[in-house]
Amino acid sequence: GGGRPPTAARITVIAGSGGLGKTTLAVHWAHRVRDRFPDGQLYVNLRGFGPTDSAMTVAEAVRGFLDAFQVPAHRIPATLEAQTALYRSLLADRRMLILLDNARDAEQVRPLLPGSPGCLVVLTSRNELTSLVVAEQAQPLPLDLLDRDEARELLISRVGAERVAAEPEAVEEVITVCAGLPLALAIVAARAATHPRFGLEALAGELRDARGSLDAFEGGDATTDVRAVFSWSYHTLGADAARLFRLLGVHPGPDIAAPAAASLVGIPVPQARRLLIQLTRAHLITERAPGQYGFHDLLRAYAMELTQAYDAPEERRTALHRMLDHYLHTAVAAGRAFTPHREPIAVEPVRPGVSVGEFAGHGQALLWFIVTYPALMAALQEAAEAGFESHAWQLAWSLTEFLDQRGHWHDQRTVHRIALGSAHRIRDLTGQAHSCYALGLADLRMGRYDRARGHLVRALNLYRETGNAVGQALAHGALNLASEREGRHDEGLHHALRALKLYRAAGHRSGEAYALNNVGWAYAMLGDFQQTLVHCEKALTMLRQAGDRRGESAAWDSLGYAHSHVGDHQQAISCYRHAVDLRRGRGERVREAESLHRLGSAQLAAGDRAGARRSWQRALTRFDSLGHPDAHRVRDGLTGLGGADG
Q1: In Å, what is the CA distance from 332 to each residue of 147, 340, 368?
Q2: Is-contact 546 510, C-beta < 8 A?
Q3: 342-393 pLDDT, tens digit each
Q4: Dihedral sign from CA coordinates of 318, 234, 302, 107
Q5: Which PANTHER family did the record assign (predicted)?
Q6: pTM summary value
């Protein structure tokens, strides 16, 4: 293009109404040009045309892209502006294809556009996005309904030229009913292809009957005619598959997996898998990722109409209840594997017909959370709106550790605001306490210490009111961290000691061990290293007995810090080595690098310049691969030693 600034990415907008094949075209084309973009592809479904207000926010989309780049949680900045800037900087020198599917409007898209010329953006939308075409010189590629010749070509490509040539009248009738919509033609072609012995005349006859039975669905656009195709395809389903298709209209999330679908209908998972495969073959749903199924928006709207027309309100509510039970109980089970030391909450037993997932360990649970958490967030919102208040706050509780450890702090705030409202409406003080704690934690991670303190003090009071000693200890632990970050070290020690006392009184051994280490660290911040050694050695003994590797590494690290500050450098080196080994064994890359950095400082203080150089070089390699903010400090240290390679 003539007036395009040479620094901007190239943009193509594929626009047109629902069911024209915009996404199919974009994905097909992305596969063909894959080799031109050696740095890979980013894909996001912006859900601009789903039910009601389910469109993806810019914050969600940017966060998803940062996850795709595997940016570690602690490196993700607090504000959306800074996150967007980080995303753009990651794209700066890369050649990538970015597919933004189902965009609602230009506002939703603009922050996601890279500034670099090596990238290509392909957008699909039902709107023309004219302002992008004007301001960003985007290339418009409008799609329209197929004319009769194009429709015939599509059928020939799917069904074969012989069958199309053999029954010209039937073909013309099918084309008329499909109204030039590729989605409708694909559904008919799928049925013809799976029943090679059916004459096309028989299919056309079925479609003719279906059109007559559509009085219930009046509407004034091309999709009304196409409903004949949907309804015909729906009526060819067996009763079980038909019921599943209708009730999928109750599911709020972007995608659904077999266990959730099984729970929705109240059937065993293997049966649900078979029904989902049937619906996929009929082109009524799509398998978007292995084991994850989704609707086209027109078909979702159709399923919602069907369930409202044919399923009694109490049946829809029971289905919703079973689905929420599935998500809640599976999330609680995943949480147990993800953070075993966490104090559990009391959850109502599941309704009959609900499947609950099982998890063998941390890795399996983490993977499930990563794949399912958009659906969990949608389910939580639906629970709050539909009056399932306990499900809402308990789902939020089950997501807390995952969202915190992965750095989804904005989502943490979103879900716990909803949860707090739900717990408030049913006067559930336990739920309110947990949500205030999680909101405080999110603000703490984002460096908003005043707001964090407000939430945490409120959580502390609610935990007191409900007599939850472990909750109070958690709140004091977080207040200790907030005080330390703000340099209020006396206050930090006060909170650390309160947490220790509460864990001891509750007989909570692992909490007590972590709290001992925090007390030791608080003394170190105040310069009382003898007290650090006393408390952290006790913590270390308890953590080793419990086989808690994560806590043990933290205690070794604190002891190293104390020994180096009292001038016992050999002791410090030995402690830091233990911390480094444990952290490497657990794949804790950030904390391993931080311990390596401190190990190098202790080696330098002991006069071992070569050892210090080796440790700092290893720390630098890790910090650089993580994009860690401490990288420049290590680099400066190496330069001072005269040994910075690269």
Answers
A1: 53, 11, 12
A2: yes
A3: 889 999 999 999 999 999 988 899 999 999 999 999 999 999 999 999 999 9
A4: positive
A5: HTH-TYPE TRANSCRIPTIONAL REGULATOR RV0890C-RELATED, REGULATOR-RELATED
A6: 0.82
